[in-house]
Design a protein that fits this description.
There is one protein chain. The protein is built from three helices and twelve strands. It is an alpha+beta fold. Strands 1, 2, 3, 4, 5, 6, 7, 8, 9, 10, 11 and 12 form a twelve-stranded mixed β-sheet that branches. Strand 5, helix 3 and strand 6 form a beta-alpha-beta unit. The mean pLDDT is 78.
Length: 279
């Protein structure tokens, strides 16, 4: 009996030491890699300045947070990518399923400044062109659930078409993006809300992808869309040379299966004002 107790005591002691070592490695080591080692490595390899304001990881609650992230290309002042705060709950099932599994992720203050030059290449592509090699191997397995993006913005400019897109006040909800089945509670519904080139765009939806009727509903709202914004995308030999006016749109789409037959219904309300077309 005494031998059993001694064995259990030694086993628990060894387990506690291993757990403490692993905890300290994750708690202190990973933040150091993300905030200090990785930015220096990226700058040396690609000439990209990467800044990370802070990293916090709690292995016990499977929680991680990254603050004040930015990535700026050499010679530019405005970051290509940045965000104020990234929080996510990861799952330890990632180890058993050999896949990246995230139960919940919240991204706040995301900003992307994308540009396409005359060679049809985006500025973000140019960052990692050095030493780029194509690798073939196993597909990437992941399951990212309950994705919430708030207070974000995007700027896109195209030297070929001359088009510019400015978006702000973006709020996006995505229930999940996954390449594997994952038993995760989904508690957000799909949605998009933002201002694109001065136009208020909003859509929301409800879906039951695992129900027998596969019922899904999508609601769309578009306010004061300026038709002049589509001019840069018109073909050079198009019959229409100039177009103007304002469009307000509201619509709903319903899909469901009834008696094994798919049913799709569409309802829209469109209002066009001050329409002008020049050929």
């Amino acid at each position: 009996m005494n031998r059993v107790l001694v064995f259990l005591r030694e086993f628990l002691l060894v387990f506690a030491l291993i757990f403490a070592a692993c905890y300290e490695t994750v708690f202190f080591g990973v933040p150091y890699v993300l905030s200090t080692y990785l930015p220096q490595k990226i700058y040396d390899e690609y000439g990209v300045t990467m800044k990370v304001g802070g990293v916090r990881i709690d292995p016990l609650s499977a929680y991680a947070e990254v603050k004040d992230f930015s990535m700026t290309h050499k010679g530019e002042k405005m970051p290509i990518l940045s965000f104020a705060d990234l929080k996510f709950d990861f799952s330890y099932y990632s180890a058993t399923k050999r896949a990246a599994i995230i139960d919940k992720i919240e991204l706040n203050g995301f900003f992307a400044n994308l540009k396409r030059d005359g060679e049809k290449k985006f500025n973000i592509e140019k960052i990692f062109l050095k030493n780029k090699t194509e690798k073939s191997g196993e597909p990437l397995y992941f399951s990212i659930n309950n994705i919430k993006i708030t207070n974000s913005a995007l700027e896109l400019s195209d030297e070929i078409t001359g088009a510019k897109v400015y978006t702000k006040n973006l709020n996006i909800n995505i229930p999940f993006v996954s390449t594997i089945p994952s038993d995760t509670e989904i508690f957000i519904t799909p949605g998009f809300d933002g201002v694109i080139n001065g136009t208020k765009l909003k859509f929301s939806g409800k879906t039951r992808p695992f129900a027998k009727d596969l019922k899904s509903e999508l609601f769309l709202s578009l306010s004061c869309f300026d038709l002049a914004q589509i001019e840069p995308f018109l073909p050079k030999n198009a019959a229409i040379d100039k177009i103007g006016g304002k469009v307000d749109l509201g619509g709903a789409v319903l899909f469901e299966k009834k008696d094994a037959h798919p049913l799709l219904s569409l309802k829209t309300d469109i209002n066009v004002s001050d329409l002008s077309v020049r050929a």
